[in-house]
Amino acid sequence: xxxxxxxxxxxxxxxxxxxxxGATVTNGGFATVGSGGVxxxxxxxxxxAQVSTRxxxxxxxxxxxxxxxxxxxxxxxxxxxLYLGNGTNNTLTFAPGASSRLTNIGxxxxxxxxxxxxxxxxxxxxxxxxxxxxxxxSTGLYVGTSAGLGNNTLIISNQTFSTLGANIIGSTSSxxxxxxxxxxxxxxxxxxxxxxxxxxxxxxxxxxxSATLNNFATITxxxxxxxxxxxxxxxxxxxxxxxxxxxSTADSSHSNTVKVLAGTVWNLNGNVINVGAEGYTFRYxxxxxxxxxxxxxxGGVMTNAxxxxxxxxxxxxxxTNGGKIFLNxxxxxxxxxSNNVLTVTGPGSYLxxxxxxxxxxxxxxxxxxxxxxxxxxxxxxxxxxxxxxxxLHGGSVTITGAGSVFSNRTQMGVDGYNMxxxxxxxxxxxxxxxFFLNGATNAMTIRGSGAQxxxxxxxxxxxxGNSYNSLxxxxxxxxxxxxxxxxxxxxxxxxxxxxxxxxxxGAVSWFTGQYNDxxxxxxxxxxxxxxxxxxxxxxxxxxxxLVLRMHGARPVEKQEAPEFHDIxxxxxxxxxxxxxxxYIMDNPQPNAFATGRNPENAAVAAKIGRxxx
Length: 613
Fold this sequence. Notes:
Largest sheet: 25 strands, parallel
Shape: elongated
Structural class: mainly beta
Oligomer: single chain
Low-confidence stretches: 126-138, 278-290, 362-367, 505-529
Strand content: 35-45%
C-alpha cells in the first residue's frame, strides 16, 4: 500500500474507526487520524500487526482522536514524524503491558496545547529517530510549536534512542515540559537542545532524572525567552557549550535557570559555560538584556569546562551542598558588568579555576557591584601558572567560616576601586606568591579567631597612584609570610595614605605613602624591615606584660597568698631559679601559667581557684 491512510479526513467527519489486526501494512504514506476540521472522535486500533507508514498525525485538524497500539505491534514511521495537534485531547495509547514497538520516528512534535505524550517501559522506542528527514521534517523533539499555545508535555522513560536534529521545548509557546526519566539513554547526534526559542516563550521546562544523555552540542536555556528551566539529577550528561539566558530580554520576574543536582556528572568536553551572555568572545560587551540567569550546582558535578563567564547584570552561579565545578588549565572565569554573584558554600563545595579570575570584566569601572562569597567550608582554588592569577576589580568579596578557603597557586590581587574584602571566622585566603592590595580606596579586613592570610609577600599600594588602601588584621586573625618576601606599603610614587592596621591589645596602625621621600619608592623595603624589626623588639620586651594584662592579672604579695608564695618559692629553689614575680587572676576557674623572656624576668600567674587548691 503506497498511498496515505486517513481516518476522519473530511470536515465535520467524526466517530470513524480503523482497526488493523493480524495484518501487515507496508510502505504506507502519511497516516492521519482526525485531520478534518470541526469533527473528531476518530479511532485507530492496531494489534498483532506489522505496520510501516511515512509518519503519524493524531488530531492534526480536530479534537478527541485516539490511536491505540495493543499487543505484538511493530510500527515503523520510516523516518516520518509523530504529531499531536492542532486540536485538544488527542492521544497515543499503548495498551498496558504491550510488547509493541514504535520505530524509526523522524520527529516528535506536540504542536497545539494541553497535550501529553508518554513513552514508558510499556512503549519501547527501538532505534527511535534514526530515520532520515522526510519532506522537511527535522529529526528531533519539538514540544510546543504553535504560537501562543502551550502546556504540552512529553515524557520518556526506560528508552534507548537517538536524534539527528535540533530539539526545541517552547519553540513558539510557553509552559511546555520535556521529561527524560529513569532508565533512558539518549544520543543527541551532536545536535542542540533549546528551551524558550522566541521572545514570548516563557516558563518551559526540561527535567532529566536518572538518565544518560550524551553526544549533544550546545544546550541553551532561554535562547530568547525567559523563565525557562533545566533540572538534572542523578544523571550523566555530555555536551559542548552551555548557555543560560543567551539573548533573553531583561525580565526580573522570570529567570532562566539550570540546576545540576546531586548524583549528576556533566561533562562539557572542553567547552564554555555562559551565564547571561551571547558568547565567550563577547565577555566585555555581550547582550545587555541577558539578565537574571542562574546556574545552581547543588550537589552535582560539572567538569572539563573551558571558561565560566557571567557576562552582564544580575546573574548568579551558586555551588553548594558539595557541588563542584572544574575548569581546565589555562581557562578563565569572568564576572560581568554589575550585580552578578558567585557563591561557593557548604562542606565539600568546590570551584577549581585554571587561569585568570576577574571579579569584574571592566578593569576601571568603579561602579561595579559584583559579589564573590565563599562560606561554610566552601573552597575556591585557582591553579593558574605564574604571571597569571586572581584579579578582583570592583565589587565585594566575603570569605567566612571555618574551612572556607580561597587558594591561589600564584598571585592574588585586589586592584579595583572601593572594594570591601572580608576574611573572617576561621576562613583562609592563600597566595603562592604575592598578595597585593592596589587600586584605590579598597579595604581588606582579616578578623576573628582562626582567620588568616597566607602568602610569600604582601604589597599595599604597589603602583603609582594606588592610594587610600587599607588592610586590617584584628580579633585573633593573622597574616603569615611563608616565603620570606616580607611586605611593602606605598612603594610607588604617588601611592599615598595606604594603611596597615594590626588590631587587638596595643593595636598598631601604620600610615605610609604620604611622605614618599621617607618610606616610598626604593626606601619602602627598608622601612618595611625597620617596621618589622620594631614590632619584634616590642614583642620581645613586652610579651609578658601583654599576656598578664590580657588575663587581668594583678601583682600579689606573700601576705595575701602565703600558700601560693611558698609553693612557688619551694619549686624555684629546687630548680635553682630566681624567685619569679607572682600574679593572681580573680576568676574561680582553676588555671595557671608562667611567662617572661628569661628566668630573671619571669612571672607566674594563678587564678584564685588554683591558688587555694
